[in-house]
Design brief:
Elements lengths: L1 H17 L3 H7 L3 H11 L3 H25 L3 E7 L4 E6 L5 H6 L3 E4 L4 H12 L7 E7 L4 E7 L7 H7 L3 E6 L4 E2 L8 E4 L3 E4 L2 E3 L2 E4 L9 E3 L5 E9 L5 E6 L8 E2 L7 E2 L11 E6 L3 E16 L2 E9 L11 E4 L2 E12 L3 E8 H8 L7
Parallel strand pairs: 2-3, 5-6
Antiparallel strand pairs: 1-2, 4-5, 4-18, 7-21, 8-9, 8-12, 10-11, 11-14, 12-13, 13-14, 15-16, 17-18, 17-20, 18-19, 19-22, 20-21, 21-22
Helix pairs in contact: 1-4, 2-4, 3-4
Organism: Lentzea pudingi
Keywords: Disulfide bond, Hydrolase, Protease, Serine protease, Signal, Zymogen
Pfam family, one: Pro_Al_protease
């Protein structure tokens, strides 16, 4: 019975991986502008961009299947753009054959994902010096990576001791900060002063970054007319907020593409590590890149924020709170990062699913 169940799942996974053509993706899902942005930022041609979205969609479904099959031996998973497959780490080598039959690329690893998450949780409960810029479960390295300013590795000693053999220290030139200098997006203004970006429309308002405002702060829209107020906000620790809008504003499923047709959000299925991702923000517009890691803790000067997703997409001050999408699936809202869109950088976003769950909100979809 178990063998038949596994075979059935393999057939399902195979069907998902082969029945959606690149042409169908381009026609029925992501817009031509979205594909063009992927071509620009990921170095792909039109067919490669459509094919990658097809592969990533299949990988997102397969990831749920293989994680359940691997059970306690699950060591993490990520999308490998070079092969178009989902790579699955597993501590039990006996499960590799079946994982391969399911359509995944198995890799035997030393540490279980549950152990890595537990080690990271210990770091989340710790005080970190300013020389430490963040930490996250590094799925590809099968370790808890701690990032420190260049030449300051000793500053991470106490955190390394807590994480033990699961820790990996990496020096960086990054200096993460909140994108709060000028607030942008499909712009909204806080107390007629600061400016941030709308993340995604939800029932009764929209979600955005928590560092943009506090409960009770007044919000005006892009046209400077009254829009509503911050109903809930969490920062630091988290970086998300819910703005309740007034009756003059209507929620839509659109995301500003800045120069192209609006992207219409159709859902909020979380993409895998390694998947392509695009961001919208008022300062720098529309940019794309890849998901590098999930559940990262970033140690901002204003306080640590956990549960963020790390990307190699650029951003600049004023992009705070803006939308992140993978295809037409909502992913999160901009928190902060380092670098800029001239030389490149690292940007973190707060996953939208956590925001929806925390506040009991429903995403507006089209």
């Amino acid at each position: 019975m178990k063998r038949m169940a596994v075979a059935a799942v393999a057939v399902l996974a195979g069907a998902l991986a082969t029945t959606v053509s690149p042409a169908a993706v381009a026609a029925g899902g992501p817009s031509a502008d979205l594909l063009a942005a992927m071509q620009r930022d990921l170095g792909l041609d039109a067919r490669q961009a459509a094919e990658r979205l097809r592969q990533e969609s299949a990988a997102a479904v397969l990831q749920r299947v293989v994680e359940g099959f691997a059970g306690e031996s699950f060591g993490g998973a990520w999308f490998d753009a070079s092969t178009g497959k989902l790579v699955v780490g597993v501590t039990d080598a006996a499960k590799t054959d079946r994982l391969r039959k399911l359509g995944a690329e198995p890799r035997t690893v030393a540490h279980r994902a549950s152990d890595l998450n537990a080690a990271k949780a210990k770091l989340d409960a710790s005080q970190a010096p300013s020389e430490v810029t963040g930490w996250y479960v590094d799925t590809k390295a099968n370790a808890v990576t701690i990032t420190v300013k260049r030449g300051q590795t000793q500053a991470a000693r106490s955190l390394v001791e807590k994480a033990g053999t699961l820790a990996k220290v990496v020096e960086t030139d990054e200096a993460p900060r909140l994108f709060k200098d000028t607030r942008g997006g499909d712009a909204y203004y806080i107390n007629n002063a600061g400016r941030c970006s709308v993340g995604f429309s939800v029932g009764g308002g929209f979600v955005t970054a928590g560092h943009c405002g506090s409960p009770g702060d007044a919000v005006t829209g892009v046209d400077r007319t009254a829009m509503g107020e911050f109903a809930q906000s969490s920062f630091p620790g988290n970086d998300y907020a819910f703005v309740r809008t007034n009756s003059s504003w209507t929620s839509t499923a659109k995301v500003n593409h800045y120069g192209g047709a609006d992207v219409v959000v159709s859902g909020h299925t979380e993409s895998a590590v390694g998947a392509s991702i695009c961001r919208s923000g008022s300062t720098t517009g529309w940019h794309c890149g890849e998901v590098q890691a999930k559940n990262q803790t970033v140690n901002y000067q204003e306080g640590s924020v956990s549960g963020l997703t790390r990307t190699n997409v650029c951003a600049e001050p004023g992009d705070s709170g803006g939308s992140w999408v993978s295809g037409t699936q909502a992913q999160g809202v901009t928190s902060g990062g380092s670098g800029n869109c001239t030389s490149g950088g690292t940007t973190y976003y707060q996953p939208v699913n956590e925001i929806l769950d925390a506040y009991g909100l429903t995403l507006t979809t089209g």
